[in-house]
Amino acid sequence: MHRRAAKVNFVEIRSYWHVFRSFDRMWSFFILCLQAMIIVAWNGDGNPTSIFESDVFKKVLSVFITALILKLGQVVLDVVLNWKVRQCMPFYAKLRYLLKVVSAAAWVREKKHNDQRQKGSGEVAWDGSSGGVKVSSF
Questions:
Q1: Which among 66, 87, 69 has a CA at the least distance from the CA of 77?
Q2: In a domain, 51, yes or no
Q3: What is the value of pTM for the model shown?
Q4: From CA 94, how far away is CA 81, in angstroms rounded?
Q5: What distance in Å separates the CA atoms of residue 39 and residue 37, rounded to the nearest whole number?
Q6: Does the pLDDT at position 136 exceed 90?
Q7: Total count of domains within the chain
Q8: CA 87/CA 80 separation, integer angstroms
Q9: Which UniProt keywords apply (predicted)?
Q10: Nearest to 43 by CA among 32, 30, 53, 31
Q11: Rounded distance, CA 99 to CA 71, Å?
């Protein structure tokens, strides 16, 4: 029977951000559901079926913008938490992190750019300063 060698020079670092990152999909789901529930509760009569009304439905679609921003935050947090081990990472792992950041930032930028083009057309537009959805009048 062989005895396993203990880990040498290894210290596991756990902070709140590491725990958050371990359950980031769950936290994102909770945040997005909370946002949708608040929108439905504050618009209309509070009835869950009011989500099918067109004005409430357009406001609920803002959860996709929140999801893009949360994804960008998750990617940045992932890079920050793995910053200390960058010297021992293979090149493809570094490239993967770089592509994740670029991809998430490009989605957020594209969404903001697309919404700025739609502001005058009467379609749903996102106002980044207020963090909500505005519907332009025709």
A1: 69
A2: yes
A3: 0.63
A4: 13
A5: 5
A6: no
A7: 1
A8: 14
A9: Glycosyltransferase, Membrane, Transferase, Transmembrane, Transmembrane helix
A10: 53
A11: 13
Compare 64 and 21 and report the one with higher pLDDT: 64
Range of the domain at 21: 16-135
The total number of residues written for the chain in this structure: 138
* Lookup: tokens for 21: 């990152």
- CA pair distance 32, 66, nearest whole angstrom: 7
Backbone angles phi, psi at 77, to 5 degrees: -65, -40
Q: Is residue 119 part of a domain?
A: yes
Model confidence over 93-103: pLDDT tens digits? 889 888 988 98
Task: Report the alpha-carbon distance of residue 33 to residue 65 in Å, rounded.
Answer: 13
Look at residue 8 and tell me if it is in a domain.
no
From residue 93, alpha-carbon distances to 7, 12, 19, 102 in Å are 23, 20, 22, 14
Q: Which two tokens stand for residue 70?
A: 């949360």
Confidence of residue 33 (pLDDT cuts 50, 70, 90): very high
Q: For the segment 66-125, what is each residue's pLDDT rounded down to a tens digit?
A: 898 898 888 888 888 888 777 888 888 889 888 988 988 888 888 777 777 776 555 555
